[in-house]
User: Fold this.
Amino acid sequence: MDEPKEKIRGIVTRGVGGLYGVRTAEDPDTEILCRARGILRQKKTSPTVGDDVWIELSDARDPGEEAAEEPEESGKKTPAGGHAGPANRRSRKPIRGKSAIERGEADFDRGVDVDWVIDAVDERRSLMIRPPVANLDYLFAVIPCASPEPDLLTADKLTVIAENYGIECVIAVNKADLDPGRAEEIRRIYGTAGLRVFPLSAASGEGVDELRAYLCEISRSRSDGRHVSGAFAGVSGAGKSTLMTALFPDLKLATGSVSRKIERGRHTTRHVELFPIRMETGGIFWLADTPGFSMLDFTRFDFFPYDELASSFREFDDCLGKCRYTKCTHLREEGCAVLEKLRAGGIAPSRHDSYVRIWEEQRKVPEWKRKQNAE
Assistant:
């Protein structure tokens, strides 16, 4: 009887053309090239960047493979199967050899020999559709105080998207040195909303250490062994790149060492990649890198039911269900608990203004289009 093959737990850090890069928390510098077992397709499970997966060495009996597609699932939290692996998962060194990256673009046309397969995908905590990424824990919304002027509506849309996907949203108020008064105003707005806020200046370094300390804190190993990942988003000119460089000085070195030839394969417009960032405390922060996070999921923003929008504003939570009318829209009704809290100063006027504008935008979307976008 054949001995059972050892399975190793890893994280999908990128996928393109039917190939997946998988890294482990124990050895994040080594990328293991994998294909997905055909049985995952039968289970309607497509590995996605950010997935916690189980991999093993392939053999001649491995059935087929699965292309790296945009995930078909929709909703906030999607089960994706699971696997209980052995306690000793690192007794065998992964076979490195030449990866598809080193072999070059042409290998995607000729086919690539891959020694490892993704055998199972753990249950997902969350799944975003555009850009496609699973298990994102934190979204850092970068809001500039000046140059350009802060766009609070866009920032509030980011918070709504994060809330809908079960992702913790953190506000980084950048360029605070250019307008300290405005920085304090924005801090109060989102602090009142119950969000964590970091006023800072990526250019001068003011406040960057505090945000780095927070990243170190959240990057400590989770009790369930899962990885911790996050992404930075914001309007053009908000200073995301400068901030990321200030927070992660070695990021450029890490990304520069990876050939981009793999991106010329299939589905490159949806390409997302996770980079392991070693924190001073020993933890690893998995940074999601893609231009798509600048306008995070706005192309599918009308996927969310407008009549459930209020639950995406956490400062409304203690008011929901307390209005005079059961179907209160929280726009202008008498006896609305949300409006009463707004008048009492418990909700920032800009946040309620954003709620009204988003509600009206979503209401204008025809039902057939809403259903189409939800598919």
Q: What stands out?
A: The longest strand covers residues 8-16. Confidence is low (pLDDT under 50) at residues 66-70, 72-110, 253-270. The longest helix spans residues 349-363.
